[in-house]
């Protein structure tokens, strides 16, 4: 759902020796964020990942050090190991998308409560960008910042202001079903932010609903933002800053 890629790497890992695998040389993007790495051994050897005294998993590290542990007295001396590396590129300035990735990682780790805040941030920040640029057609940056910060919260943006933006830009309205799920996600996010925890533990099914809604909300926000910029370019809205 996020557009991840998986690189399948087959390398020779001699038993009782250490081998360094450079994932970039096997097709992984140099700026990739590694989401998971799976090792499958063969030929009587068990691939073990080597680390220092303090184990750390750096998702940006593309160098993997593998030790070929011998299993039993039989087997070949230089077996092959299949490494499946699942990765995604997250631009440094794309905070909403990074939050979406974080939400999915928390879901994958079965930390369902922890997926709530980043899932909501992914949508709220994306919608906020579109709303901000739309309002720049009618006011100054300072007044827009004050208005969105003090008066028109995220709830008002998706429930009250969004229909107006869609009407002036020609972007289709957000489906009621999606908006309802995003409102439910927002409510759980408020529980976590204000109380430190949701009112009740979040189930796997509910978490799955939230992260899925976040994906659709994120992409809808991108559609909305593109519609705002297009309306400004073709004159249906005043250009930002020309008010």
Concise structural overview:
This protein is of the alpha+beta class. The chain has helices at 95-108, 116-135, 141-150, 154-169, 176-195, 204-233, and strands spanning 5-12, 18-22, 32-40, 45-49, 63-70, 80-89.
Q: What would you say this structure looks like, in words?
A:
- By secondary structure, this protein is α+β, with helices and mostly antiparallel strands.
- The protein is 45% helix and 19% strand.
- The protein contains six helices and six strands, in the order ββββββαααααα.
- It has helices at residues 95-108, 116-135, 141-150, 154-169, 176-195, 204-233; strands spanning 5-12, 18-22, 32-40, 45-49, 63-70, 80-89.
- The strands form two sheets. A three-stranded antiparallel beta sheet has the order 1-6-3, with no helix packed on it. Strands 2-5-4 form a three-stranded antiparallel beta sheet, with no helix packed on it.
- Helix 1 (95-108) runs antiparallel to helix 2 (116-135), helix 1 packs antiparallel against helix 6 and helix 2 packs across helix 5 (176-195).
- The two termini are 40 Å apart.
């Amino acid at each position: 759902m996020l557009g991840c890629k998986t690189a399948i790497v087959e390398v020779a890992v001699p038993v009782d020796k250490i081998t360094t695998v450079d994932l970039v040389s096997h097709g992984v993007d140099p700026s990739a964020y590694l989401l998971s790495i799976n090792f499958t051994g063969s030929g009587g050897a068990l691939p073990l990942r080597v680390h220092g005294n303090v184990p750390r998993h750096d998702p940006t590290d593309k160098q993997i050090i593998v030790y070929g542990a011998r299993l039993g007295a039989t087997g070949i001396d230089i077996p092959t190991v299949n490494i499946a590396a699942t990765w995604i590129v997250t631009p440094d300035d794309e905070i909403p998308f990074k939050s979406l990735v974080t939400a999915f990682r928390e879901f994958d780790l079965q930390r369902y409560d922890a997926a709530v805040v980043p899932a909501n941030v992914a949508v709220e920040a994306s919608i906020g960008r579109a709303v901000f640029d739309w309002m720049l057609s009618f006011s100054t940056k300072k007044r827009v910042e004050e208005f969105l910060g003090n008066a028109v919260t995220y709830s008002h943006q998706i429930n009250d202001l969004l229909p107006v933006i869609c009407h002036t830009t020609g972007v289709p309205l957000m489906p009621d079903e999606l908006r309802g799920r995003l409102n439910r996600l927002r409510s759980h996010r408020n529980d976590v932010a204000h109380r430190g925890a949701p009112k009740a533990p979040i189930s796997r099914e509910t978490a799955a609903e939230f992260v899925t809604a976040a994906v659709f909300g994120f992409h809808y926000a991108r559609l909305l933002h593109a519609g705002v910029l297009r309306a400004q370019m073709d004159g249906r809205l005043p250009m930002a800053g020309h008010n």
